[in-house]
């Protein structure tokens, strides 16, 4: 379970779309991710007067990655608004910083070095030094928050950028067209899913955050390749394997949120018009996906890409 959980928690930041401090800065990127004919999956939920497009996203991508398609651009053009999992205001990150401060710091925590096995403490020391923050700051962080901070360094070291992520590009396009952008969850709600993880799971995430960058690159590459191909079965298989021994994490990070969004979509289908919902690709794959929940409620869901 430990290896699978570690892989899941690192991938979840990209394929579940969860907010992370990893997107707050950029670096020089390696070669962009590309495909001869990218076809990331896109679905349509519709009735006689309402259409909702569902698009699975990757939150962090290398600079200049190519993933837009004519089908997606057509859906964007028809949509009167966009809804993301949450909205991070890059120009004014005060709100997110306040949430991180209230959820991510606590008194009386064990020293950060005591939260990893002795053999991994030199790696943690090196990662902390690379961050530029004093170790005392990490001692006051909850384990998941310390992991997020260090994961940001890892992501940037392999050229993954929040500014190049799908949500950021979609948000810019809709706002440039004068169309509203909304959210399904607040920043606090999103980070709260990690804040309530068992400490053992948080420590596994911290261990993953100090893995070698080459390992991080391998973890992402397969997921990104599958996403570009629109290979939903592979994405679902990955998450099912990683979570097979941890149903509580599947419930907290995927199923409970998917059920909430299904309720939201059910309500929104009562209003006429066309909108797009863009959420992490992991939410639109496999058993317990948003599409599956919608179909169980009798809605028509059609894949259009």
Q: Which structural class is indicated by helix and strand composition?
A: alpha/beta
CA-to-CA gap between the ends?
Answer: 34 Å
Q: How many strands in all?
A: 6
Mean pLDDT: 84
In DSSP terms (H or I, runs of 4 or more residues), the helix count works out at 13
Spatial arrangement of strands, main beta sheet: 4-3-5-2-1-6
What does this structure look like?
It contains 13 helices and six strands. By secondary structure, it is α/β, with parallel strands linked by helices. It has one domain (2-27, 65-303). A six-stranded mixed sheet has the order 4-3-5-2-1-6, sandwiched between helices. Strand 1 and strand 2 (50-57) form a beta hairpin. 44% of the residues are buried. The model is unreliable at 20-31 (pLDDT under 50).
Give a summary of the structure in a few sentences.
The chain is 50% helix and 10% strand. A hairpin with a 3-residue loop joins strand 1 (42-46) and strand 2.
Secondary structure topology:
Elements: H1 2-15, E1 42-46, E2 50-57, H2 70-78, E3 82-84, H3 94-104, H4 121-131, H5 135-139, H6 143-157, H7 166-176, E4 181-183, H8 187-195, H9 199-209, H10 213-229, H11 232-243, H12 247-268, E5 273-280, H13 290-296, E6 300-303
Parallel strand pairs: 2-5, 3-4, 3-5
Antiparallel strand pairs: 1-2, 1-6
Helix pairs in contact: 1-9, 1-10, 1-11, 3-8, 6-9, 12-13
């Amino acid at each position: 379970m430990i290896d699978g959980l570690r892989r899941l928690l690192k991938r979840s930041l990209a394929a579940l779309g969860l907010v992370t401090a990893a997107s707050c800065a950029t670096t020089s990127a390696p070669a962009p991710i590309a495909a001869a004919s990218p076809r990331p999956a896109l679905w349509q939920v519709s009735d006689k007067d309402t259409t909702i497009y569902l698009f699975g996203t990757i939150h962090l991508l290398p600079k200049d990655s190519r993933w837009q398609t004519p089908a997606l651009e057509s859906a964007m053009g028809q949509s009167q608004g966009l809804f993301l999992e949450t909205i991070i205001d890059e120009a004014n990150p005060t709100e997110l910083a306040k949430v991180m401060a209230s959820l991510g710091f606590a008194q009386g925590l064990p020293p950060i070095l005591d939260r990893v096995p002795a053999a991994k403490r030199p790696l943690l020391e090196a990662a902390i030094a690379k961050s530029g923050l004093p170790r005392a700051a990490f001692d006051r962080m909850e384990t998941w928050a310390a992991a997020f901070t260090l994961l940001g360094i890892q992501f940037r070291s392999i050229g993954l950028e929040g500014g190049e992520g799908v949500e950021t590009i979609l948000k810019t396009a809709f706002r440039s067209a004068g169309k509203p952008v909304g959210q399904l969850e607040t920043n606090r709600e999103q980070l709260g899913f990690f804040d309530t993880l068992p400490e053992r799971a948080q420590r596994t995430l911290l261990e993953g955050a100090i893995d070698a960058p080459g390992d991080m690159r391998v973890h992402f590459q397969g997921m990104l390749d599958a996403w570009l191909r629109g290979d939903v079965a592979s994405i679902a298989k990955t998450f099912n394997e990683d979570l097979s021994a941890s149903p509580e994490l599947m419930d907290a990070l995927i199923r409970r949120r998917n059920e909430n969004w299904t309720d939201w979509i059910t309500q929104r289908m009562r209003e006429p018009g066309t909108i797009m919902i863009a959420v992490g690709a992991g939410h639109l794959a496999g058993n317990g996906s948003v599409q599956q929940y919608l179909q169980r409620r009798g809605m028509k869901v059609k894949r259009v890409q």
